[in-house]
Design goal:
CATH class: Alpha Beta
Helix content: 40-55%
Bound molecules: 2'-deoxyguanosine-5'-triphosphate
Structural class: alpha/beta
Largest sheet: 5 strands, parallel
Number of helices: 11
Number of strands: 5
Radius of gyration: 17 Å
Strand content: 5-15%
Distance between the termini: 39 Å
Order of helices and strands: HEHEHHHEHHEHHEHH
Mean pLDDT: 92
Low-confidence stretches: none
Oligomer: single chain
Number of domains: 1
Length: about 230
């Protein structure tokens, strides 16, 4: 474990002197993070880092995302450990762009998903404690510094319909009640601000809007994301 920590420290030191303005995009499953990232990806000054879902689907041939949904009690610890590692890699990825836009973060992995799995008894308390120890260490080392959070706010009923339509094979067990619970955690964290600390100021967008009109909503935060207001 020590050598892994040393390696991460080295990566972070490399990045330290040239930290870009860092924005994380958060919201429920199916809230439209990918569409948001695609829209802002057209700017040359923004480095877009999508969520590593395909990496989770193929860890040396193992589909960890699929295993987590099939048998969360058995695989949640494995999955959340890998999510935390791959998210950290995104936080630490060097870029020459002045702005870095990341889909999700170590924060939502810990505050939303680990929290829910632990509350549901699907992640054993000792396992969740180990993930939390790693998480706290990442934060203490300033490896996941964030300047702005964009919260794509949706209603659970709408994201449920989108998830049914996209038919991602691993997500066939995702229920409306699961989405309602995840929605509530996002709300408490990013809207009411009653659960956990926000690592940066939050911009809230109405992500219930249809794709055809959502660009007007995105434009509201363009100057914030391009860091023109600082
Ligand atoms: P979208 O539709 O563009 O807003 O983005 P999604 O829904 O593809 O992205 P996301 O991050 O909400 O979820 C991708 C899948 O991975 C989804 O089935 C939920 C799952 N997922 C993402 N992060 C975590 C995590 O930390 N823990 C667990 N258990 N599942 C996660």
């Amino acid at each position: 474990m020590q050598s892994v920590k040393n390696l991460i420290t080295k990566m972070a030191l490399k990045q330290k002197n040239s930290r870009p303005f860092t924005v994380i995009v958060e919201g429920n499953i199916g809230c439209g993070k990918t569409t948001f990232l695609e829209y802002f990806g057209k700017h040359k000054s923004i480095c877009v880092l999508a969520e590593p879902v395909d990496i989770w689907r193929n860890a040396d041939g193992h589909n960890l995302l699929g295993l987590m949904y099939e048998d969360p009690k058995k695989w949640s610890f494995t999955f959340q450990s890998y999510v935390q590692l791959t998210m950290l890699q995104n936080h630490l990825k060097p870029t020459t762009c002045p702005v870095k836009l990341i889909e999700r973060s170590v924060y939502s992995a810990r505050y939303c998903f680990v929290e829910k799995l632990t509350n549901d008894g699907l992640l054993a308390k000792p396992s969740s404690a180990v993930i939390d120890k790693w998480f706290q260490w990442i934060i203490e080392q300033n490896f996941a510094q964030v300047d702005l959070i964009v919260y794509l706010r949706t209603s659970p009923e709408i994201v449920y319909q989108r998830i049914l339509q996209r038919k991602r094979p691993e997500e066939k067990t995702v229920s409306l009640s699961y989405l309602r619970a995840l929605h509530q955690i996002h709300e408490d964290w990013l809207y009411h601000k009653t659960l956990f600390q926000c690592p940066a100021p939050t911009l809230i967008l109405n992500a219930n809007l249809e794709k055809s009109v959502i660009e007007q909503e995105y434009e509201k935060c363009e100057s914030h994301i391009l860091n023109l207001r600082h």
